[in-house]
Each structure stands twice: as C-alpha cells, then as structure tokens.
Amino acid sequence: MTEPGGAPLTGFRVAVTSARRSEELATLLRRRGAAVTCAAAIAMVPLPDDDELRRHTEALIASAPDIVIATTGIGLRGWMAAADGWGLAADLTEALSGARIVSRGPKATGALRAAGLPEEWSPDSESSREVLQYLLEGGISGLRIAVQLHGATDDWDPFPEFIDELRAAGADVVPIRVYRWHPAPHGGAFDQLVLDIGDRKFDAVSFTAAPAVASVLMRAAELGVEADVLSALRSEVHAMCVGPVTARPLVRLGVPTSSPERMRLGALARHITDELPILQSRMVQVAGHTLEIRGTCVLVDGVVKELSPASMATVRALATRPGAVVSRVDLLRALPGSGSDTHAVETAVLRLRTALGDRQIVSTVVKRGYRLAVDDPGAA
C-alpha cells in the first residue's frame, strides 16, 4: 500500500502514559500520523476525606500561614473543594488571604484567583527551583509556609528536596497533599506497555507527570526488565516530557529527555511532531530516490511504503552503513526469529525490493551480500 507521506508522524510509534487527558494527547498525535498506544501509568486518587489533609487544613485555620505556595491548579481546586465539603472553605480562604501567596505557574495562578487569593509572584519558567530561590532570597527563617504539593505515590514523593530546603532555611513547613498517584493495576495494558518499551517497540514515550515516570520505572523493576527499559530510553526510545519537573527522575538516571518550552499538552504534541522525525528517521539518497526510514515504514520520494517486519529489519540493517555491503549472515541475524537458512535473506530482500517499487534501490554484491545503492558512496 502506498499513500502520500504528508503527515509528519506517519510511521512513528508513540506510547502515551498520561492518566488525565490521554485521549486528547493521543488524538493530537494521531492527527499527525502517529500510531499511538495508551496505557495510564498512574491513577489519581482524590483525598477529600483524608484525615491528614483535614488535620493540616484545620491547623492552618487555627494558625494562619505566613506564605502559601500553590504548585498546581487541580491540586488547589481540590483542596478548596475538600474544605467546602467539611464546611471550612470560608475559614480556609480567610486564613490564606492574609499570607504572601506564590504560584508556580499559570494554572495554579488561575485557581488562586478563582478562589479570591491573588498571587504575589509567579515565575515565567514555571520552575519550582525558581520559586524556592525567590523565597530564600527574601528570607524565610521562622515563617510558617503551607505548600500545596504535586501528587505522590505510596513509594515516591516528587518534591522532597523542595520541602527539605525550606525547612533547612528555618521555615515551619505544612505540606498539603491534596491527591496521590497510585500505580496502574498489575497484569493489564500498562504492564504490556512497559514490556514493549523494553523491547523497543516504540519510537517515543510521552510523560506528562513525574509520578508516571516513577511508575514506569518501578513496574519495569517488578517485571524484571528495568535494565532493558533504561537501555531503550537511553538509545532508540525517546522520552518526551511535558516539562523539567516531569523529566527530573529520568535525568537523574542518565536518560536523555526533551521538552517543549511551554508546559502544555498541545505544546508537547507539537514538540513530538517537530523532534521525533529528526531524532528517529534516517534519510538516504539511493538509486535516484530519496529513501527515508521511520519506525514502521519507509518513504520513497515522500510516498509511504508499508513494509513487513522482516522487510523493515532488512532495510534497517542495510541503512546502518549506507552503501556498505552487508553479508547474508548478518542480515539473517537481523531478521525477526532468525534461523540458520540464508534463503530467508533472499526472500526478505526480494519482498523488500517489491515493496519499495524499484529493484535498483537494493543491489546484490555477488558472493558477498547486499547493499543500498547510494547515489554518492563517498558521502555515505
């Protein structure tokens, strides 16, 4: 089958790990041609009836904070909704209204203003590190600070250093954990997604929350494929994160990440669209054609050529060193489920030539093997 390859992500495979708005991100990527697999890495569990949240809320009403830090819009709205359910919303708003209020970003700012709590300051970068620096420069020793936190899993807290540094500077910190993240259930679609990352069946994995990263890594360890997953993410499977906070757990493990300038879902989709073809495609001039190799297909002069797994494996092996001869034995090793009969290589090459539409693209080198017929072997 052939079709114009105008969609920029045609032939690329992207895994979506989001718990919220996953279909929105998947739709944006599919419209750009990607093959998308969705499996939520985490589930958000609201805590309107949580004893710790209520206890801290009542403590802040009884002894108002000097500073309030809002980190997420959904978290702040959840906190106010929980207080309303306890009949404490008015008291909480009054207690917070006398404090200096710092917002980490636009969504938190919007939620603050909707609650009648205008912010003193918010960084353009949406960086928690910049929030911390702003407070430390002004001095916080002896001050009572309420910090509305990102979600956490039972085994992982995204902001331990943030709170530790506030306390080290002499502040009395009241953590407000409005919601927590629980890992996805075992034995389902998420397990398969993690295994597929380790098997390098995706070209990119998108992350929109740091707990999702933690969940993938923890589940990989539980499934015994942690080394495979980390190796894949450090090489052929690209980690695309919505922002630096999300990327931090991967960066600490030496995994390359990339993020859009703005921490928004639409910006992430555009970032993947712009970056993935640069990171994960190979373009070669062969036999008078432009050959572009993507995740699951090949484009010849901009026209998509759908290939079988064996044909894709063959063309990838030939493109490792364009123009160089690849022996039948090496091509046999590259084939899925490779056996010992080199006749399978001849069959794979024949089918590849047919699928590409020009038999001259793959040349036979007698008694040696096969090569891509690059137009300028010296440049290759």
TrEMBL record:
Signal peptide: none annotated. One of its GO terms (molecular function) is uroporphyrinogen-III synthase activity. The keyword Membrane does not apply. InterPro entries: 4pyrrol_syn_uPrphyn_synt_sf (IPR036108), 4pyrrol_synth_uPrphyn_synth (IPR003754), OmpR/PhoB-type_DNA-bd (IPR001867), Sig_transdc_resp-reg_C-effctor (IPR016032), UROS/Hem4 (IPR039793), WH-like_DNA-bd_sf (IPR036388). CDD domains: HemD, trans_reg_C. GO terms for biological process: phosphorelay signal transduction system; regulation of DNA-templated transcription; uroporphyrinogen III biosynthetic process. Keywords: DNA-binding. It holds the Pfam family HEM4. Residues 281-374 bind DNA. Residues 281-374 form the OmpR/PhoB-type domain. This is Uroporphyrinogen-III synthase.
